[in-house]
Peptide MFS transporter (Sphingomonas qomolangmaensis), 528 residues
Amino acid sequence: MIALGFLAILLAGGVYVATTKSPEVAGHPKGLYVLFFAEMWERFSFYGMRALLIFYLTKHWLFDDSQGNLIYGAYLSLVYITPVLGGYLADRYLGQRKAVQFGAVLLTIGHALMAFEGTGGQADPIINIFWLALAFIIVGSGFLKANISVIVGQLYPLTDVRRDGAYTIFYIGINVGAALGVIMAGWLGETYGWAYGFGAAGIGMLLGLIVFILGRPFLLGRGEAPRPLTKRTEWSLYGVGLVAIAVMWALIQYQDVIQNLLIFSGIALLGYVLFESFKLEPHARDRMFVVLFLIALNPVFWGLFEQAGGSLNLYTDRYVSRGDVPASLFQSINAIYIILLGPIFATLWVLLGRRGFEPSTPAKFGLALVQVGLGFLVFVWGAQSVGPGVATPVLFVFLIYLLHTTGELCLSPVGLSAMNRLAPRHLASLIMGAWFYMTAVGNFVAGKIGEATGGEGGEMTQEGTLAVYSTIGWWTIGIAAVVLALSPLVKRWMHLDTLADEDRAMLGQAELAEPAAAGVNTKGETKR
């Protein structure tokens, strides 16, 4: 009931934004709130489904813990690798708006297919519809994720001080949807049946598609195709998306192939980015090196963070003293923390920036790694403090999510903000796609870590899981120390004193895609 009440308040706010005559609301253009609500519903569906997925794999399709975690990690890795394709097609041909709209259609179909559950077990032929549903969601996310983030940045000039605040508002929208989706879909799925939970996620995605279509006028022409687009070309690009669905349907069933794909395509992608970097003038080239440095830290952070929906979700279900609360609902803690702490962090960066004490972007990444590693160490200490074989106090679930959330707020919105700010305009969506690509690597790493918690027999044990958590926690603390030591040098390579908006006064401005994106408060980072 609380979740429904909060949802009603949000919908009332959306009606106010849509009907007010002012072009801005709370100091930001209306288009930001269209993207806020569209992404909120998309995240409602994505995280609602994600909260149930590991249980669906192990309890309904009867995969063992190790294989379930590996499939979970492989699925998420593909969700984050496909934005490279979606970003490239949007930059070169389709434009961000049409890419987002097409992605939303595919996601709606994918979540609807998740409602077909059959009788369960891997011998059930309905499992092929399950793989197809995952394929639709993977490709739909590829067209939507990077491009909707780019449109946010297009609403503001590069040096606009509202940029970090805009991305934080957008990020709060992501987590409002995540919290509501987990609570509603998780509760329905574990209480009444899988189809109810996944069906609720599908309805959420449909609402996101409707919001985005109706809100097009508020985007002020942002995100359109970079050049006139013929219908034949446009539908050919949609055909590429359908072919990609067939490819993903096969890949998700063969996780070893995904591992090799990530290795080889990662080398190719980073090589291409380096090739493009050496074409740039020296300061822009140095900024691209910073982009590569920050992107390289993604797999470390997300490999640990994404234990939340996999091994930590299973651990909470089996080894935590949680009363009668369904384990999937604990997935909402992270999102709720972000809703509460997001505005505090946004204000904190501004206040520190005004006084010249704001950490640089690479320093924030180092702090994020400290916190995600420390979260696991605190969790292990709490579990071991009550003795072997005893259920872990639920307090430590809240503590690990708290530390991981504060770490996320130091890395994820800051990273989204930095990617397009440091990247040249003509590479903006590709670089945002590369950011999500390395997040894909991190999610596959998460699956491998989750697989390790299953041990040799494939079934998770409390002792074995805590041993894995301790190891990854200490390794991450060590990596964080190196990043913090290097951060002053990396900060100098950002050349923030020479960063300026490009000339935008050109013919056909309203019709052209302008993949400029987010910035951060630069007062604490200017070269001295």
